[in-house]
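Readers of this paper often ask what the protein records in our data store actually look like. Below, we set out a record of this kind in full and without editing:
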Amino acid sequence: MDNGDITVVLVKPGQIPQTTHIKNDLKAFEELADGPVSVERFFISGFRLVCNIDEGFGYDDRSLPKGTYFVARYHTEFENMSVHEAEEVKKVIKEQSKKRKKGLFSIFTR
């Protein structure tokens, strides 16, 4: 992993969240989110959800975006997350997805 990379949990529609490394810069964020990004609160303090701005507008911390997004550790700037933190983030995403009628994990929760 390069010094400019951070570990995040990446969520793509219809797929299980994956831990991955991305460049810690706006261009990389926009490539993942398929356009301008919105940085939103996440369910765990110290983490932020980064999604396409079209999904971020009106986003609240009781739902999840439907498009590709990622969750990153954030304390005044984006930081690397540990393996344990990534597993906690994935657990929260799974729990929140179950709350939606047609959530990301609907095929896994039947």
